[in-house]
Amino acid sequence: MFSKQNNEKKLNDISTIIGVETTVEGTLNINSSIRIDGKVYGEIKCSGDVTVGKEGYVENCITARNLLIAGKVKGSVNVEEKIHIYETGSLDGKAEMKAIVIDENGFFRGESLMNGKNGELNNVKDIEKAKVKAQAK
After folding, report:
1. Within 10 Å of residue 35's Cβ, how many Cβ atoms?
2. If you average pLDDT over residues 22-49, what whole number do you get?
3. Is the dihedral of CA 15, 44, 41, 83 positive or negative?
């Protein structure tokens, strides 16, 4: 019981901050949450949440529980739960998630694959195929 609560607290705590004046190249493995205000060129594998601040920039790919974007992300993202693109944020690339929120003036360009309740993907192509099958009946 306590270990689940401790694990959840650990995932919610931001243990790593990449500052505005910092540039990181390579793979980052984080077992909690991270905030990026600098630049990251490489892969981010995060058990918790990834927050990209207004000055933040990430290029390549991100795997995380949640992704909060106020800066810029370019590449592919695979998010277990939700992507939130704030009014100053932009995502350019492929995104896979359960839910996405894009604030007014937030920017998204690319392909999105939304995981359904049972883990199935619900994307535009799948929806169009379902409509064609329904019309054929």
Report:
1. 18
2. 97
3. negative
For residue 122, give the amino acid letter: N
Of the listed ranges 9-18, 95-104, 121-130, the least confidently predicted one is: 121-130
Q: What Å distances lie between residue 96 and 2, 47, 86, 115, CA to CA?
A: 31, 16, 18, 7
Question: Does the pTM of the predicted model rise above 0.70?
Answer: yes
- Please enumerate in sequence order all residues whose Cβ is within 8 A of that of 26, keeping only pairs 6 or more positions apart, or say none: 42, 43
Q: Using H for helix, E for strand and C for coil, what is the string for the chain?
A: CHHHHHHHHHHHCEEEEECCCCEEECCEEECCEEEECCEEEEEEEECCEEEECCCCEEEEEEEECEEEECCEEEEEEEECCEEEECCCCEEEEEEEECEEEECCCCEEEEEEEEECCCCCEECHHHHHHHHHHHHHC
List pLDDT tens digits, range 111-134: 999 987 655 555 555 555 555 555
Six-digit token pair at 104? 């007014």
Domain ranges of the chain: 2-112
